[in-house]
Structure formats: structure tokens, C-alpha cells
Specification:
heterodimer, A: alpha/beta, Rossmann fold, 28% strand, elongated, B: alpha/beta, 8 helices
């Protein structure tokens, strides 16, 4: 029986959630395609613990244990995966659309001459064709696309797209070890170390009220008026990526996959279009109010209340109204 | 000193545009959209020019696209690139980023370079594939999601962006492909002088025959991915739209917050 591979992603002693999400989706795909699901685990430290945790989601774990696989490195990972894929010929290999997956999947596909579909939010086999769903233009449109017919495929999967579910009946955990093909030769690409984000600054994760600003803020000069609104609400200013990229706010204010995940009582999104990188960091807020002048802004698909208008017209009024209500109270 | 090749893409700016799906149902209506250099490539351009200013060498900007893409190449020249190449052919239509990487590979493999810079992804299709595939075809290392780069003796030291604010430091031997993440630098504005000078510079144009790829290696036939249908994403939540003049809308939001005990 052919297999479906799911590459386990781990970092600093932790298996990353996208792995469990892919294993859950992989289980469904394996059932439908009459294939067998296998987690592929490359690493060294904690590898036995990792394999045990993976067995809660999958019956078969393929393990390559090598000190040179301790930290992710697209070069060494690619060498090992090329060997595993060539030997075991899986129909499909799922890899997370993460910083690691972005570095690994495209070159792996090119090396093995197998098509790669990146950043997919859904996938299925239909009449022997692989059909994927992806987003384009920062999440403003979705597309269904067919992948060129091939014996084998690689798909990278967007994080937090599928719900992770453990196996109903705990598996006895078949663990198959393969020898590492890595030699002592120095590689062309070396992992040196991790760099932790700077400590201190503002902790946006503990705020009950967050006022998030995006590209629509237009200029750093417009930030003080938003700050006044946040202050009036007893809240804290947060932002999406473009605001940090432009240097208008420090990175400790950034909400999203490359920043922080927040869950305030209310998140007010001002001029934020709602690319998935941002949405993943805030969509579980208790209440989301989005203000954007673009009626098609993806953020509206995740909001509880939306105002289709220019934020600069709403914000001063909102500040006044909040102030009035507070005055009435006292 | 290192000679740099800079791969750029000419794309529509859609972050705040009113995007419409066209009649074919497979792509967006481009009429009325403003095209410019891809945002990620803009940062790659700045990084390339800074490296050149620091260490010498040349910057060659290259793109795959029709004549309209010349304005993006002119922008590169105006900002400090020395040469510009555009590869174009009617048969490129329907190409995905795998094909673009194949075309770029053929175009650059005989050029002299120490480093290839490109954006980590494009803001239209967002495949994030061209850089690493190009590196694989050239048989050289790649580093994606670069947030900081130091050019050392024969290698680069790169801070890669990971999730949650974490970064990792990677060293890769040259020549290499570097895919740049936004926010790595502050792209400069173009001077009037720069624009004037850029208008006089030549843009070399090549076609399919010049790069030695066959017809079935490009376009839809040579691609991995073929778009069948484009549609508006389904909403995850059914949002309630607050209508009215700003004062009314603001009053309504304030009431909602009050009802939740947030005021």
C-alpha cells in the first residue's frame, strides 16, 4: 500500500501544531485514497518523546535519528527526504506552510521533479487529479487549482486551517527507523543559533482591549489619534505587519504568525485588510470590530461587527462617544 | 565585492484596491489596478543596492513579463541597479512560479554573480517558490525569509524570520539565493536625477528562443499549478454591518462595547 507522508515540524523541544493538523487531514486523505498515513520525524534530541506524541495521531512513524538533524536545516532535511521519498514512493508529502516549509518544499520538489502546491487551505483527489484550494491577493480571493498529474506530490498546508484530532483508538505505534544518509562532509548551509525576540516592551497579549492598526493608517503621524482612542478605551495599541515593516511601531506590537497571538475581550481592527498571517493571531478574540473602507477586505469575514468607512472619519467620533458614555457613568 | 542578480516581479497593488474577478472566472480584472514592483522585491532591491554601495560590484535586475514590466525595471535602475533584463514571450502565458524559476535559471546561469536576491513571495499569487527553486536548478544554497543579511568572506550570515518573533541565524556559502522578507530595511525614495538617468539606460529583452527552453516547458504546459476557478472566500463569521453616518456608526460601536462591560 502506498503512503501519505506528513513531515513532523519541531523546534526547541516542541512539536509544532501544524504537524497535528496535517496528520488529521492526512488521515482523511489516506482513507479516501486507500493509502497509509505515516509521520516522518527527522531529529535527534527528544526523538523518542516526539515519536510517542505523534503516535497519538498516527499509527506509523518513520524516524531518522541523526545529531545533524537536531535543528531544522533545509539542506540536510532535503537530503534525507529525497532518500525517503525515492525509497518509499509516497503518493503525497504534506509539509507545513511555515518558515521551515517555505525553505524546504519548493527545492525538494524541484530536486525530485515532483510538483509542489504551496500554502493550501484544502486539498482532495478527484478522478486521479490533485485539486487544491489556495488564496491569492492577500486573502481577497480563493482559487481552486489542479496540480499537474504526477506519480507523487508535495503540498504545503497553511497553519490552523485544519482542526487537530487524536486517533480514537490509541495506536500501538509502529516506529520504523531509517539510517541517516548524511555524511560528515560540511554542508553549504549551516544553522548557527536561534535569536529570541527582545524582552520587555508592551505585552499586548494581556490587554483586554486592543486597537489594531494596519496599512490603512497611511502615516506614522496618524498614530497618536489612534493612541488617544486606545487610551480612552483603557486599551493598548497593536498592529499588523506593514506598520512594523515601515518602522511606525515596534515589533512587540505586532499581531499575527510572525508576531503575537492575542485573545482580548475586544479587538478593534482599523485599516487592517486581514491577510491570514494577521488573522491567525487575532481571530479568537471574544469580539472583533473591523473598520475598513474596502467592502471586500478579508478582515470582514472574521469580524462580528463591521463598518465600511474611512477609519479617519470614525475614530474621532468613536473617541467622543466612548468619552460621553464614560461621563454618563460617573 | 560581489555581483548581484535581482529578480523582481511587476504586480498589481491590491492591498486597498477594489478587486473584481473577471469574465473568465480564473483571474482578476486588472483594468484600473495600479501596477508596481512587488512589495517583497522592493525590499530585495534596497538590500541589493546597499550591498553594492558597501562592497562594490554590480546589480542586474531581471524580470519575466511583458513590456509594462519595464516600469518596474526602470525603478530598479533609478534606485541603483546597473543593468536590466526582461524575458518575455507570448508562450509564457499561464506560467506558474515553477516556470518562472526555470526561465530565470536559463537567463542567469551564464552570468557572473555571487548572490541572487529576490522577494520571499509575491503579493499576487503568493507561492513563495521562485527563489528556492531557482537555487535548486542552479545547484546552489538558498536562504528564505531573510530579515538581516551580512556579507562575509565567501558566505552570507542571515537572520531568518521564524514564527512568533523568533529568528534563526543561518550561514550559507556563496554563490547563493537569498529570498528577502519585508521590513528588512527601509526602501529609499528615487531621486529625480536617478529617474532621468534610468530612462536612458538600456533594457535587454530576450525571448523563449534566446533562453533555450522548449514550448512545452513554459506556459500552462510547463507549470505545476493550473488555476481552474477563482471565487470570493466564504465568510467564517456572519458579521453585522453597522451603517449610518460616522457619528451614528461610532455611537453604535460605543453601545456594543458598553453592553459588554468594556466601557
Amino acid at each position: 500500500m502506498r503512503e501519505i507522508f506528513v513531515l513532523a515540524e519541531h523546534r526547541q523541544g516542541q512539536i509544532r501544531d501544524v504537524t497535528f493538523e496535517m496528520l488529521t487531514k492526512g488521515r482523511e486523505l489516506a482513507e479516501k485514497t486507500n493509502t497509509e498515513l505515516a509521520a516522518v520525524l527527522l531529529g535527534h534530541s527528544n526523538i523518542k518523546d516526539f515519536a510517542r506524541i505523534l503516535s497519538e495521531y498516527v499509527k506509523k512513524v518513520l524516524v531518522v535519528d541523526d545529531a545533524k538533524l537536531e535543528n531544522f536545516n533545509s539542506e540536510t532535511y532535503q537530503i534525507v527526504l529525497e532518500k525517503l521519498i525515492s525509497e518509499r514512493d509516497p503518493l503525497l508529502t504534506l509539509i507545513g506552510y511555515t518558515s521551515f516549509g517555505v525553505d524546504l518544499a519548493p527545492s525538494l520538489g524541484a530536486a525530485l521533479n515532483m510538483p509542489v502546491a504551496t500554502d493550501c487551505i484544502d486539498l482532495e483527489f478527484q478522478n486521479g487529479m490533485l485539486i487544491v484550494t489556495r488564496q491569492m491577493y492577500g486573502g481577497k480571493v480563493n482559487v481552486k487549482a489542479t496540480v499537474r498529474k504526477s506519480e507523487r506530490y508535495i503540498v504545503t498546508v497553511r497553519q490552523a486551517t485544519f482542526q487537530a484530532q487524536k486517533l480514537e483508538i490509541p495506536s500501538t505505534g509502529e516506529i520504523i527507523e531509517s539510517a541517516s544518509p548524511l555524511t560528515e562532509e560540511t554542508t553549504y548551509r549551516r544553522f548557527i543559533e536561534y535569536v529570541q525576540p527582545p524582552l520587555g516592551g508592551v505585552d499586548i497579549t494581556s490587554a483586554d482591549v486592543l486597537v489594531g492598526i494596519g496599512r490603512g493608517i497611511r502615516d506614522a503621524q496618524n498614530i497618536p489619534m489612534i493612541e488617544e482612542l486606545a487610551k480612552e478605551l483603557g486599551g493598548v495599541l497593536a498592529c499588523s505587519r506593514p506598520v512594523v515593516d515601515k518602522g511606525w511601531l515596534p515589533s512587540d506590537r505586532q499581531v499575527g504568525t510572525s508576531g503575537k497571538t492575542v485573545r482580548p475581550k475586544v479587538y478593534i481592527a482599523l485599516g487592517i485588510s486581514g491577510a491570514f498571517q494577521h488573522v491567525l493571531g487575532m481571530k479568537n478574540s471574544d469580539l472583533i470590530v473591523a473598520i475598513n473602507k474596502d467592502p471586500k477586505a478579508p478582515i470582514f469575514s472574521f469580524a462580528d461587527y463591521c463598518v465600511i468607512d474611512d477609519l479617519f472619519r470614525i475614530v474621532p467620533q468613536l473617541k467622543n462617544k466612548v468619552h460621553e458614555l464614560k461621563m454618563k457613568k460617573t | 565585492m560581489v555581483d548581484i542578480i535581482l529578480c523582481v516581479k511587476h504586480v498589481p497593488e491590491t492591498a486597498e484596491a477594489d478587486l473584481k474577478i473577471d469574465m473568465s472566472g480564473k483571474t482578476v480584472e486588472t483594468h484600473g489596478l495600479v501596477f508596481d514592483i512587488n512589495e517583497w522585491d522592493d525590499y530585495a532591491l534596497e538590500e541589493a543596492v546597499r550591498m553594492k554601495e558597501k562592497t562594490g560590484g554590480t546589480v542586474t535586475a531581471i524580470t519575466v513579463g511583458s513590456e509594462e514590466a519595464d516600469s518596474t525595471l526602470r525603478k530598479c535602475l533609478a534606485r541603483g541597479a546597473d543593468k536590466a533584463i526582461r524575458i518575455t514571450d507570448k508562450r509564457f502565458e499561464g506560467s506558474d512560479s515553477y516556470v518562472v524559476a526555470k526561465i530565470l535559471h536559463r537567463a542567469v546561469r551564464d552570468l557572473r554573480f555571487g548572490l541572487i536576491l529576490t522577494g520571499a513571495q509575491a503579493n499576487d499569487d503568493g507561492y513563495a517558490m521562485v527563489g528556492p527553486i531557482l537555487a535548486e536548478l542552479l545547484g546552489i544554497p538558498h536562504v528564505t525569509m531573510a530579515k538581516k543579511v551580512e556579507l562575509r568572506d565567501g558566505f552570507i550570515r542571515v537572520n531568518r524570520e521564524l514564527e512568533g518573533g523568533l529568528e534563526e541565524i543561518i550561514e550559507a556559502e556563496l554563490p547563493a539565493v537569498l529570498a528577502v522578507q519585508t521590513g528588512i530595511n527601509e526602501p529609499r525614495y528615487v531621486s529625480i536625477m536617478g529617474i532621468r538617468k534610468a530612462m536612458q539606460k538600456e533594457i535587454k529583452v530576450f525571448g523563449l528562443a534566446d533562453i533555450g527552453l522548449s514550448e512545452n516547458e513554459v506556459g500552462e504546459a510547463g507549470s505545476w499549478i493550473k488555476i481552474e476557478k477563482m471565487f470570493v472566500p466564504p465568510a467564517e463569521k456572519q458579521a453585522e454591518t453597522i451603517k449610518g453616518i460616522p457619528e451614528e456608526a461610532a455611537a453604535k460601536i460605543a453601545e456594543i462595547l458598553k453592553a459588554r462591560g468594556l466601557i
